[in-house]
Amino acid sequence: MIKHTKTLKVRVRDKHKALLNSMARHVNFVWNYVNELSHRSIKERGVFLSAYDIHPYTKKARLNWRKSGGVRRSFGWIPVNTAAAQWKNGQVFHNGHYFKVWDSYGLSQYKFRSGSFNEDTRGRWYFNVVVEKTHCINLVVSWLIAAVKSTWAMSVV
Protein backbone atom coordinates (compact mmCIF):
# COMPACT_ATOMS: atom_id res chain seq x y z
CA MET A 1 0.00 0.00 0.00
CA ILE A 2 1.45 3.36 -1.06
CA LYS A 3 0.44 6.69 0.46
CA HIS A 4 0.81 9.86 -1.57
CA THR A 5 0.41 13.37 -0.20
CA LYS A 6 -0.04 16.54 -2.18
CA THR A 7 -1.44 20.02 -1.65
CA LEU A 8 -4.60 20.99 -3.47
CA LYS A 9 -5.91 24.54 -3.90
CA VAL A 10 -9.60 25.11 -4.58
CA ARG A 11 -11.50 28.37 -4.84
CA VAL A 12 -14.08 29.13 -2.16
CA ARG A 13 -17.37 30.69 -3.30
CA ASP A 14 -17.62 34.45 -2.79
CA LYS A 15 -20.70 34.20 -0.58
CA HIS A 16 -18.44 33.06 2.29
CA LYS A 17 -16.19 36.14 2.08
CA ALA A 18 -17.66 37.98 5.09
CA LEU A 19 -17.39 34.94 7.37
CA LEU A 20 -13.82 34.19 6.25
CA ASN A 21 -12.79 37.84 6.76
CA SER A 22 -14.22 37.70 10.29
CA MET A 23 -12.39 34.47 11.05
CA ALA A 24 -9.15 35.95 9.66
CA ARG A 25 -9.51 38.99 11.98
CA HIS A 26 -9.73 36.60 14.93
CA VAL A 27 -6.60 34.80 13.77
CA ASN A 28 -4.79 38.14 13.48
CA PHE A 29 -5.90 39.10 17.00
CA VAL A 30 -4.54 35.86 18.49
CA TRP A 31 -1.34 36.11 16.43
CA ASN A 32 -0.73 39.66 17.65
CA TYR A 33 -1.61 38.76 21.25
CA VAL A 34 0.88 35.87 21.32
CA ASN A 35 3.43 38.12 19.66
CA GLU A 36 3.03 40.79 22.32
CA LEU A 37 3.13 38.28 25.19
CA SER A 38 6.26 36.60 23.93
CA HIS A 39 8.02 39.90 23.25
CA ARG A 40 7.13 41.25 26.68
CA SER A 41 8.23 38.07 28.44
CA ILE A 42 11.55 38.10 26.63
CA LYS A 43 12.06 41.79 27.36
CA GLU A 44 11.13 41.66 31.06
CA ARG A 45 12.36 38.22 32.15
CA GLY A 46 14.54 37.06 29.32
CA VAL A 47 12.44 33.89 28.84
CA PHE A 48 9.42 32.76 26.90
CA LEU A 49 6.13 32.38 28.76
CA SER A 50 5.90 28.71 27.85
CA ALA A 51 8.52 27.14 25.66
CA TYR A 52 6.21 24.20 24.93
CA ASP A 53 3.15 26.20 23.87
CA ILE A 54 4.69 29.24 22.20
CA HIS A 55 7.96 27.87 20.80
CA PRO A 56 6.69 27.19 17.24
CA TYR A 57 5.53 30.80 17.01
CA THR A 58 8.54 32.53 18.57
CA LYS A 59 11.53 31.46 16.52
CA LYS A 60 12.35 35.14 16.12
CA ALA A 61 12.48 37.56 19.05
CA ARG A 62 9.55 39.48 17.55
CA LEU A 63 7.06 38.39 14.93
CA ASN A 64 5.57 40.71 12.35
CA TRP A 65 2.22 42.24 13.21
CA ARG A 66 -0.75 41.07 11.14
CA LYS A 67 -2.95 44.03 10.24
CA SER A 68 -6.69 43.42 9.87
CA GLY A 69 -7.59 46.67 8.13
CA GLY A 70 -6.27 49.61 6.16
CA VAL A 71 -4.29 49.92 2.98
CA ARG A 72 -1.38 47.76 4.15
CA ARG A 73 -3.51 45.05 5.76
CA SER A 74 -2.38 41.43 5.79
CA PHE A 75 -4.09 39.02 3.46
CA GLY A 76 -6.56 36.76 5.21
CA TRP A 77 -5.14 33.53 6.58
CA ILE A 78 -6.93 30.88 8.61
CA PRO A 79 -4.87 27.82 9.57
CA VAL A 80 -6.59 24.43 9.70
CA ASN A 81 -5.23 21.62 11.86
CA THR A 82 -5.28 17.99 10.80
CA ALA A 83 -8.84 16.59 10.91
CA ALA A 84 -10.32 20.04 11.61
CA ALA A 85 -11.69 20.23 8.06
CA GLN A 86 -13.72 17.52 6.42
CA TRP A 87 -15.59 16.91 3.18
CA LYS A 88 -19.31 16.67 3.99
CA ASN A 89 -22.33 16.91 1.70
CA GLY A 90 -20.21 18.15 -1.20
CA GLN A 91 -18.73 21.02 0.84
CA VAL A 92 -15.75 21.73 3.09
CA PHE A 93 -16.86 21.58 6.74
CA HIS A 94 -14.70 23.55 9.18
CA ASN A 95 -15.38 25.08 12.59
CA GLY A 96 -19.13 24.44 12.38
CA HIS A 97 -19.53 26.05 8.94
CA TYR A 98 -19.97 24.63 5.47
CA PHE A 99 -17.99 26.26 2.65
CA LYS A 100 -18.92 25.67 -0.97
CA VAL A 101 -15.93 25.36 -3.27
CA TRP A 102 -15.32 24.77 -6.94
CA ASP A 103 -14.24 21.16 -6.61
CA SER A 104 -12.02 20.47 -9.60
CA TYR A 105 -10.14 17.60 -7.90
CA GLY A 106 -12.94 15.38 -6.60
CA LEU A 107 -12.16 16.09 -2.95
CA SER A 108 -14.43 13.30 -1.73
CA GLN A 109 -11.79 10.73 -2.72
CA TYR A 110 -9.10 12.25 -0.48
CA LYS A 111 -8.39 12.25 3.23
CA PHE A 112 -7.73 15.80 4.47
CA ARG A 113 -4.70 16.58 6.57
CA SER A 114 -3.60 20.09 7.55
CA GLY A 115 -4.49 23.12 5.46
CA SER A 116 -5.55 26.74 5.43
CA PHE A 117 -7.93 29.26 3.97
CA ASN A 118 -6.03 32.03 2.17
CA GLU A 119 -7.04 35.32 0.56
CA ASP A 120 -5.40 36.61 -2.61
CA THR A 121 -4.77 40.20 -3.71
CA ARG A 122 -8.21 40.47 -5.30
CA GLY A 123 -10.05 39.41 -2.14
CA ARG A 124 -10.82 35.89 -3.37
CA TRP A 125 -10.55 33.04 -0.89
CA TYR A 126 -8.98 29.63 -1.47
CA PHE A 127 -8.93 26.43 0.54
CA ASN A 128 -5.47 24.84 0.49
CA VAL A 129 -5.29 21.35 1.93
CA VAL A 130 -2.71 18.60 2.14
CA VAL A 131 -4.45 15.42 1.08
CA GLU A 132 -3.55 11.79 1.38
CA LYS A 133 -4.59 9.20 -1.13
CA THR A 134 -3.82 5.55 -0.63
CA HIS A 135 -3.04 3.39 -3.63
CA CYS A 136 -3.22 -0.37 -3.20
CA ILE A 137 -0.52 -1.42 -5.62
CA ASN A 138 1.55 -4.47 -5.01
CA LEU A 139 5.10 -3.37 -5.80
CA VAL A 140 6.31 -6.90 -6.54
CA VAL A 141 3.57 -7.47 -9.13
CA SER A 142 4.25 -4.12 -10.81
CA TRP A 143 7.98 -4.90 -10.85
CA LEU A 144 7.30 -8.32 -12.42
CA ILE A 145 5.09 -6.79 -15.10
CA ALA A 146 7.81 -4.27 -15.95
CA ALA A 147 10.40 -7.06 -16.11
CA VAL A 148 8.22 -9.17 -18.41
CA LYS A 149 7.58 -6.20 -20.70
CA SER A 150 11.28 -5.36 -20.94
CA THR A 151 12.16 -9.03 -21.61
CA TRP A 152 9.45 -9.21 -24.29
CA ALA A 153 10.70 -5.96 -25.87
CA MET A 154 14.25 -7.36 -26.05
CA SER A 155 13.09 -10.69 -27.55
CA VAL A 156 11.09 -8.91 -30.27
CA VAL A 157 14.16 -7.00 -31.47
Structural class of the secondary structure composition? alpha+beta
By oligomeric state, this entry counts as single chain
Strand content: 25-35%
Could you tell me the number of beta strands?
7
Order of helices and strands: EHHEEEEEEH
The unreliable regions are: none
Helix content: 25-40%
Strand order of the largest sheet: 1-7-6-2
Average pLDDT taken over every residue: 79
* Computed CA radius of gyration, to the nearest angstrom: 23 Å
Q: Count up the helices.
A: 3
Describe the 3D structure.
With 157 residues, this protein is α+β, with helices and mostly antiparallel strands. The protein has 3 helices and 7 strands; from the N terminus they run βααββββββα. It has helices at 17-45, 51-54, 139-156, and strands at residues 2-11, 77-80, 85-88, 91-94, 97-99, 111-119, 125-135. It has a 4-stranded antiparallel sheet. The longest helix has 29 residues, at 17-45. It is extended. The two termini are 35 Å apart.
Could you outline the blueprint of secondary structure elements for this entry?
Blueprint: E1 2-11, H1 17-45, H2 51-54, E2 77-80, E3 85-88, E4 91-94, E5 97-99, E6 111-119, E7 125-135, H3 139-156
Antiparallel strand pairs: 1-7, 2-6, 3-4, 4-5, 6-7
Quick summary:
It contains three helices and seven strands, in the order E-H-H-E-E-E-E-E-E-H. By secondary structure, the chain is α+β, with helices and mostly antiparallel strands.
List keywords for this structure.
157 residues, alpha+beta, four-stranded antiparallel sheet, three-stranded antiparallel sheet, 3 helices, 7 strands, 32% helix, 29% strand, extended
